[in-house]
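User: Hello! My lab partner asked me to get a predicted holo structure for this protein. The small molecule is zinc ion, SMILES included with the sequence. Please write out the structure tokens.
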Amino acid sequence: MTAESRDAFFHLANVQVGEPFLAKAIIDTNALFVGTLPGAPYHYAAVCKDISRINHSCTPNAAYHVDLRTFAFDVRALFPISPGEQVFISYIDPALPRAARQDALSSYAFTCACPACSLPKPALAQSEVRRALIARADATAESRNAALERWARGTPTESTPDYASITTVDKMYMDLFEKERLYYEPVWEGYMARLCKAACAVGDGEAARRWAGLAAALNRAYTGEDRGWDEVASAPERTDWWGVRTRKLGGVRSRTNLDAG
Ligand SMILES: [Zn+2]
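Assistant: Hello! Below are the structure tokens for the protein in complex with zinc ion.
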């Protein structure tokens, strides 16, 4: 390392007081998880001069992302952050129950006092239920995707749900994410995608643009890229979901009219 980097490195926090090797103690205190790298079987972590100084919250308002092409890290907001407000990232899986979160954070030698951890008892119980639901929110993704597909593209029958009913569960989860201030990665995207598709299917451009815009912003925070959502947000009517349901309903309505006539 350059003298400047070395100086910055050794000025980072160290909570591993029992660790005889100072450099290892600083790595253990400050390293950010990177994951595996192409062609290598190991898990990697990195120490960053500034990003390693960002504090933890179980309700983080920002996320960091590693660009493996450039080895650059960036931090982006998950929620609007006001001037003077502290930036927080999560060091652990934030969907764990509070006791497990505190346990996972014990190696950092602090007791988390974030908004989720410092809730009074009745509110904490509700938060724990919401996080438990969020943690396993992906379990039924496949059947939900299939149900949406059937609703949008299948032949409508008497028992086919309407737009409000088909989006109820996905909206309930969006509400959970919003209430917990936790768009849990990576499950949030499935919910937003279904809501955006449903909105497109009935030609609701305003809702489709809103969901796609949020999905683009969250994807940029988590992955560094919009993953195609910007294009959907700017022209939802160009997706192959646009109007598919409305056209089917149009068919049903005219048949009903014919019967009535
Ligand atoms: Zn916390």
